[in-house]
């Protein structure tokens, strides 16, 4: 019976476990990445390393929080605690699918802006014009960071002659 008391309210530990698996997958990808000899510093592994470190740190912090403060178990276990918003999930998934299909023909700037705008819309933002502007700025900054800082070119697509 003591074992049950220690594990009660800790189902949230699944998320840090998934994050650790994702971090391991990314770490293996970074280690096996073919880096060209002439790559500029900090190189193409810089951002993936930062993201992987952040994933492991977030997983560790979530684990500590969930162990120290387990989720309270409701007295009435009959009802649902939450629900799934399938409309939002479907919109975000459609945004990722459109991004994947449009990346090469339309280019990074257009496909990433569409993805960022779609996610903002799916999560309930009402100011569509502002969201599109922020999405364009965000996608542009990422394109500049990859081009200028890392020496990597993201796909230009139909904007081939204008950017890149």
Automatic annotation (TrEMBL):
Residues 16-155 form the DUF1468 domain. The keyword Cell division does not apply. Coiled coil: none annotated. Keywords: Membrane, Transmembrane, Transmembrane helix. The chain crosses the membrane at residues 12-33, 45-67, 88-120, 132-154. This is Tripartite tricarboxylate transporter TctB family protein. It comes from Glutamicibacter mishrai.
